[in-house]
Specification:
three-stranded antiparallel sheet; 37% helix; disordered C terminus; alpha+beta; single chain
Length: 402
């Protein structure tokens, strides 16, 4: 009887989840097989920075409930949706909620949030859900859609109770992450970083050749190679070692620097290629090779128009469709992107000056957006114009008007 060799078998149906699994929500989708060697895409600086720029910028935008097609676009501060975003989303604040949603769309292709409602349909809260916890049940033939997430509801969840952000998709239902499209360049970037790590850790030398006069057996070759590596390649110093050879042996190093191997050029190209996938200028990812002061303003406009605006529109339309009751069809969700202009005073001044001159905004409306108190008589909308009759020129002399 094997009294001391008894081992209790684990139940194969029991889920084994480590601490790292809990606190690394993107670890299961940031790696692509063995080629990644357990290194996530977010460990690549260009991918990390691009994701942070998009998610952080959108997360800081104020979320407001407004009336559709309203001339004054009044802000309904007392609306339940405004209160939900103001008081925080479940256990996290509005900033982290929006950041997690956008990050999930970028890295996993889908962003989910469960909508908590009162009996009358009023939204009382939102709960962010990881993409791995939600299952999409889509019947293409019947054109029916619902969701499954046992964390919030044991029954199937109706689409009206689930925020589902999809940036890239082939059918409009199942999202595809940017990392899926950029898999090849991310593989190349990881391989380049691994090569750079190996190159510099070996003292910038790839190896060498030991020449021996005479014939050696395979065993002798193996012994010489093993003894050399143990003596001169096992040190943790800078790699500047002096080898002493016996008899008729000579050593010739194989010299190949980073420039010859085009390692630096490859790393720079990787940043530019990743920037293309994320729709961000390489300047914002730290590539200053083609940067100039004249490009900064153009970069900011490009990021807002081509990179951020699609995400903003996606969020506004999904929130407007799902968060309001049937009798609130005249309301909409608005993400105020004018906050981005606050960091550029020149652009901000030009923006509000144009709106004032065209009569689109009043002085008090501008002051309210800038955080100033209203002034008397500042509610009127005026249009700046020039009276041509008062500036008519006749025979080279200006009319006096008398």
């Amino acid at each position: 009887m094997k009294l001391f060799n008894f081992r209790k078998k684990k139940n194969p149906e029991t889920e084994q989840r480590s601490i790292s699994d809990v606190y690394q929500p993107y670890s299961n989708v940031l790696t692509f097989g063995k080629s990644y060697k357990n290194t996530s895409a977010m460990c690549i600086s260009a991918v990390y920075r691009a994701t942070e720029i998009i998610s952080d910028t959108i997360a800081i935008l104020p979320i407001k409930v407004k009336v559709k097609n309203s001339e004054h676009k009044e802000n309904l501060e007392g609306h339940s949706i405004n209160i939900v975003f103001k008081n925080g989303i479940n256990l996290i604040n509005r900033y982290n909620f929006m950041k997690l949603l956008v990050q999930s769309v970028i890295l996993k292709g889908n962003g989910y949030a469960y909508i908590e409602r009162a009996d009358d349909g009023t939204v009382t809260g939102l709960r962010f859900l990881e993409s791995s916890d939600v299952t999409i049940n889509y019947n293409k033939q019947l054109n029916k859609l619902d969701y499954t997430c046992t964390l919030v509801n044991k029954k199937r969840i109706d689409p009206k109770d689930m925020i589902h952000l999809v940036k890239n998709s082939y059918d409009g239902i199942n999202g595809v992450s940017i990392l899926t499209y950029a898999k090849r360049i991310i593989d190349i970037s990881n391989n380049t970083e691994d090569s750079a790590n190996s190159f510099f850790s070996n003292g910038c030398n790839l190896g060498g050749i030991i020449t021996v006069q005479g014939n050696l057996t395979e065993q002798q070759k193996q012994d010489i190679r093993q003894n050399w590596n143990q003596a001169y390649n096992g040190s943790e110093s800078s790699g500047c070692l002096l080898g002493v050879l016996q008899g008729n042996m000579s050593y010739q190093p194989i010299q190949l620097n980073a420039t010859d191997s085009q390692m630096l050029e490859s790393r720079q190209f990787n940043v530019q290629d990743i920037a293309r996938f994320f729709g961000i200028s390489p300047v914002l990812l730290g590539d200053l090779s083609h940067n100039s002061y004249s490009t900064i303003e153009a970069v900011q406009e490009q990021v807002l128009l081509q990179t951020l605006q699609p995400y903003i529109t996606m969020i506004e339309e999904e929130f407007t469709k799902k968060l309001f009751k049937e009798n609130e069809s005249d309301l909409e969700i608005n993400l105020d992107e004018t906050v981005i202009l606050r960091t550029n005073k020149t652009a901000q001044a030009s923006y509000y000056s144009t709106l004032l001159d065209k009569g689109i905004l009043s002085i008090n409306e501008v002051r309210k957006e800038l955080g100033y108190s209203e002034i008397e008589g500042g509610d009127a909308h005026t249009i700046a114009y020039t009276d041509i009759n008062q500036n008519k020129i006749d025979d080279g002399k200006q009319e006096s008007g008398n």
